[in-house]
Write a structure and sequence with these properties.
The chain has 74 residues and is an alpha+beta fold. It is built from three helices and four strands, in the order ββαββαα. The strands form two sheets. Strands 1-2 form a two-stranded antiparallel sheet. Strands 3-4 form a two-stranded antiparallel ribbon. It has one domain.
């Protein structure tokens, strides 16, 4: 278990990751981390930039071809 400190940044709160926790999450400055509630508390997961780009491309395609996709789903 790792203790993380909460700090004030402007009007927001921020959690400072120790070097050890940053290595465990494999995060660097500028990376995105998702926080998901679980039964045990909160789970932190690093967002894979390649996967995120693929998801965004899929969203654009679905938006562009929404009528065709709706017809295919019938």
């Amino acid at each position: 278990m790792h203790e993380l400190r909460v700090t004030q940044v402007g009007d927001d709160l921020a959690i400072v990751l120790s070097e050890e926790v940053a290595k465990l999450l494999d995060v660097r400055p500028g990376d995105t981390v998702l926080a998901s509630p679980t039964a045990a508390g909160i789970e932190l997961v690093r967002v894979d930039s390649k996967a995120q780009a693929q998801l965004e491309a899929g969203r654009r395609i679905m938006a562009r071809y929404k009528d065709a996709l709706r017809k295919l789903a019938e």
